[in-house]
Each structure stands twice: as C-alpha cells, then as structure tokens.
UniProtKB/TrEMBL annotation:
Keywords: Lyase, Signal. One of its GO terms (molecular function) is lyase activity. It comes from Catenulispora acidiphila (strain DSM 44928 / JCM 14897 / NBRC 102108 / NRRL B-24433 / ID139908). One of its GO terms (cellular component) is periplasmic space. This is Alginate lyase domain-containing protein. Transmembrane segments: none annotated.
Length: 432
C-alpha cells in the first residue's frame, strides 16, 4: 500500500524547488509517496541555520532525493576523515601563553613578518612589519590556531553527517571533540581570547585576533543545537558544560578590552564580532540582546560598509579585495540569518545612500560567474569564494543571485549548500 506524502515533505519540496530541477522535485515526490514512513525528529534550535529547513532536508535525504546524493556523499567523505582525526586541545601547544596557563588560547598575527635574522639576542627577528594579505607560515608553529580550525571543521562535518544519516559514530566523535576542547577540565580552553594574534616584540594579544573564533564559532553553536536533538554520545553534562562555556565567553566579549577594540572595528572584523555576539546571545537564551545586536548592525555595519552600488569600500582597499569582500559578506549574510530568528529583516534594510545587502552580494556576482573581470587589487582571485554568499541571497529572494546560481563554479569539496544552507568561508586564506 502506498503511503501518503506528509505535510513536512510537501513543505520541503516547496522550500527547495527554487534550487532543484522539476525532475528532481518529481523524483522526491515519488520517493516520499512510496517510501517508508519517517519518524519526526525535534526541530533543532539553531541560531544561524534554519532548523526547520534542516529537518525537512533530513526527510528528503532519508527518502532518497537524487539531487542530495552528491552533496551527502561529499559530506560523508569529509566526516569519515574526521572520525580518525583529533581530538584537539589547547594543551597541545609547546609554548606557554603570557599568562603561563596553557588553557589560554594563543595565536600570532598572520600578516606580520620579521625583518631581521633570528639570533640568540633577537630570537624573533624583530622588529616585525606588516605585509597585508601575505601569510607568515611561522604562525603555524603555535598549534592553537590550526587545531582550532581543524576542530571546528570536524565537529560541523561530523554533526551534520550524523543528523542526515543517523550514523552514531559521527555524533559520538563530534561529542568527543567538543568535550575535549571546551568541557574536560584537563584539556579545556579558557573562555577568553586575551592572547590572539599577538605580534612578537610589540603586543601579546589584540582584539583583532578575536576573528580566529568569530569567523566560524557560530558553526559550533549550530552543531550543538543539532546534537541536542538526541545525538548518541552527547550527554546532559556535555550540554551543560557547553552552555556554561558559551555564557562565560559571551561575558568576556562584553567586558574585555580586546573585545571592545574588536567591536569598534568598522570593516569585516566588526561584522564578524556582531555575528558571533548575536549568535551567542541567542544560543544562551538572551533573545532580546540578540535582536538588539542585529538591529544596531543596520546603522553600525551596513550604513558604514555598503556603498550605493553595493561595493564594500573598506574591503576593496585590501590587497585581497575579492577575498575580503566575500569574507565580509559571509559575516553579514549570516548575521541576516540570525536576524530571521529574532524578527529583524537585515536583507531588505536600505542604507541612507541606497545600499542593501542584496546589492552587496550582486556586486560580486559578475566576477564569481565569470561574466566580468574583478578589477580591484587581488593577489589570488578565487571565484568560488562567493558561492555561499550568492546562495544565501538567492534563498532570501534576490533575483540577480537566483539567476547566478546555475552559473557558479563548484568550490573545492563540492557545493554542500543544500545540506548546510549558511555561508562559509570557502577560500583557504585565513587572517585579519
């Protein structure tokens, strides 16, 4: 006997119809009509991703929607690799932070270079000078930065893979990684960033270094929300430990000098600061605070950053202007998605000069799709860096972005948008 298509499946088909072909939608409808009944899962209380959309997409994965097979296979490939990597800890680094406490996170400024040979009298080769956009590989000698990135990626991939496949091993490994970095007293990181992106012989830490976390920490907030729906290996003690860490970290962001310095930044650093703070507020139950942060961003970020034509002048001045334009858009579009959770429509806000977030995404479309050259400074142009930003604007209703989706290049590792529909930094550079 054939089963009836459930309202959740119908809603999912409507939701993704704009990015799937008619034949794929028809295939999904057939699979949903003939396939096994689905056991409903709780809708995850995500802060950036749309939890309801994730639940609907999970249904489509389970009934075998063909268009999801390729991204699911790529996600599983990445998650399988993460099963045997890590776990990571700030205790792994050989250096002691200035506090003499290895539990404190430590990193070095990526674009600052020594000017002298290292000697016994001058082991760092000071003084240091800045080379914008040119990453100093010596910063990787301090392992916190690289391990933090590996841990963030692993937890997100593992959690999403568990959510869509139900494979307990993925969830159990994600729980171990989170527990090791944030909860276990022997290996946990202190909930502060006092010693990020320091510059030898100049400063032990800077507010600008908060971006080490803010560019991707919101992925972990959503991963925890997914695990909270009933993941094997994820305990109530793990959940309580993460909640405590998040509250303490949010308090540090609201009271420390480094955080105050970063919040005052007018370029992508300020955007990422707001995104992280708003997401943490929402994740810890402070909805009013989250709404206030997003609302303030209309004047504090969009008014300052977006020109009438949609360009981002503060990012165009960089030696890697396309990277930093798309990077800032990751923060702004994710902030707009947080706004959707708290009733603030950042997408349609117009600055006094007529700039909008839609226009800002549209500005990078011609270069991203190969229709026009990028005419601003760029040391390493990578068109795929804009893919997720354009997906986000397309989903939010931007016609130019919707028309561009079919012309976008495929990022390394495949286009995973249908499974994790929130912008990520897709090009490999990482810095200030």
């Amino acid at each position: 006997m054939k089963r009836r298509t459930t309202p959740r499946i119908i809603a999912a088909l409507v939701l993704v119809a704009g990015v799937l072909t008619p034949s794929a939608v028809a295939s999904a409808a057939t699979a949903a009509h003939q396939g096994p009944a689905l056991r409903p899962l709780p809708v995850p209380a995500t802060v950036v991703l749309d939890g309801y959309r994730l639940a609907l997409t999970r249904d489509l994965v389970r009934v075998g929607l063909p268009s999801l097979n390729a991204p699911l296979a790529e996600l599983r490939t990445q998650a399988d690799a993460a099963l045997t990597a890590g776990p990571w800890s700030v205790m792994d680094k050989p250096e002691l932070p200035p506090s003499n406490d290895k539990h404190d996170y430590l990193s070095q400024a990526p674009y600052w270079w020594p000017t002298q040979p290292a000697t016994a009298a001058n082991p760092w080769g000071c003084p240091y000078v800045q080379r914008d956009g040119v990453r100093n590989p010596a910063i990787d000698d301090i392992t916190d930065h690289a391990e933090r990135g590996e841990m963030f990626n692993a937890v997100y991939d593992l959690t999403l893979a568990w959510y869509y496949t139900g494979d307990a091993a993925y969830a159990q490994r994600a729980a171990l990684d989170l527990r090791t970095w944030f909860v276990d007293p022997a290996t946990r990181m202190n909930p502060s960033l006092d010693f990020t992106q320091g510059i030898p012989c100049m400063v032990t830490g800077r507010g600008i270094g908060i971006i080490d976390f803010s560019q991707q920490f919101t992925d972990l907030l959503d991963a925890v929300a997914l695990l909270d729906t009933g993941a094997p290996g994820w305990s109530s003690a793990d959940r309580a430990g993460m909640t405590t860490w998040n509250k303490q970290f949010l308090s540090w962001l609201q009271t420390s000098k480094n955080a105050s310095d970063e919040a005052a930044s007018t370029n992508n650093h300020g955007s990422f600061f707001d995104m992280q703070e708003a997401a943490l507020a929402l994740a810890t139950g402070q909805r009013t605070l989250a709404r206030s942060i997003v609302t303030t961003a209309e004047t504090q970020r969009l008014n300052v950053q977006i020109a009438a034509d949609g360009s981002l002048p503060l990012e165009l001045s960089r030696t890697r202007s396309f990277h930093y334009s798309t990077f800032d858009l990751v923060a702004l579009t994710r902030l707009a998605m947080i706004g959707q959770h708290v009733g603030v429509d950042l997408w349609h806000y117009s600055t006094p000069g007529g700039g909008t977030l839609f226009k800002a995404v549209d500005f990078v479309v011609p270069a991203a799709t190969g229709q026009a050259a990028w005419t601003y400074p760029e040391l390493q142009f990578q068109a795929f860096a804009a893919v997720d930003d354009i997906h986000a604007a397309a989903d939010a209703g931007d016609r130019t972005a919707r028309a561009a989706v079919a012309k976008l290049p495929t990022p390394p590792g495949g286009d995973l948008w249908l499974l994790r529909p929130a912008p990520e930094q897709l090009d490999p550079i990482s810095g200030s």
